[in-house]
Amino acid sequence: FFFFLARLGGRYRAPDVLMGSRKYSTPVDIWSIGCIFAEMANGRPLFAGTSEADQLDRIFKALGTPDEQVFPGLASLPQYNPKPVCVYQMPEGLAHLSPALAKEPDGHGVALLEAMLCFDPAKRISAAEAMRHPYFQDIPGAPSAASGEAAASGAAAGGGAAAPSALPPKAPASEDAVAAGVANLSVSGASGASEKGGATALAGGKAPARPRLGSLGPGDGGSR
Q: Distance of CA 62 to CAs 34, 46, 92, 127, Å?
């Protein structure tokens, strides 16, 4: 069972990890997310290798055999083989990895997949950049690329994280303004008490009960 889990987990390992890299950081996870992203679109694992060597061969067959120009530091990895059995050519894009994503007219899905499945870990897209990718912009509430650029430029201009702007100090209120405010509170309080009494009478002498969270059905205007 544990051997099965280990073999299954190898399907989502980045090539740098498969070749013995000890630098485990977020780019490693981004590669795994890219494999899962393609698997969700295709309905099957992207690289279903049966061993680490077979997994690397499947990756190279689909993405091409990398070199130092494509992946700086490749030759320094412990499991790097300078004379592989097969040398595969680099493809023109990765649309062939997911026919479902390739059918999208805007091409955003393939572009996101290419940004995640990059041989060089330093060039893989970050999680924050992936969330702002145009592929997700039709989702309500998704962060936009413009907001990310604005935050980055604000942080750069301020020499660090963008700090919220301070509110201007309020001018001290005059005695007449304070007296008028107290009078308004008195009037609104009396009016509120009258309305509350009327609502209690309509409820048969008891204040109407508040609906519990989640008890409102669709269309009732409630929020969870």
A: 14, 10, 11, 24
Residue type, 184: N
* Buried residues in 84-110 as b, exposed as e (16+ CB within 10 A): eeeeeeeeeebbebbeebbeeeeebbb
**Nearest in space to 91 (alpha carbons), one of 68, 61, 70, 136:** 61
Q: pTM value? A: 0.63
What's the rounded Cα separation, in Å, for the pair 222 and 86? 62
Cβ atoms of 35 and 59 closer than 8 Å: no
At 87-108, the pLDDT tens digits run: 999 999 999 999 999 999 999 9
Provide CB contacts within 8 A for 55, sequence distance 6+.
Answer: 10, 11, 13, 18, 47, 49
Q: Could you please report the per-residue DSSP string of 24-35?
A: -SHHHHHHHHHH
Highest mean pLDDT: which of 109-113, 134-138, 170-174?
109-113
- pLDDT tens for residues 170-190? 444 455 544 444 444 444 444
Q: Are 31 and 46 in contact (CB under 8 A)?
A: no
Q: Tell me which DSSP letter residue 94 carries.
A: S
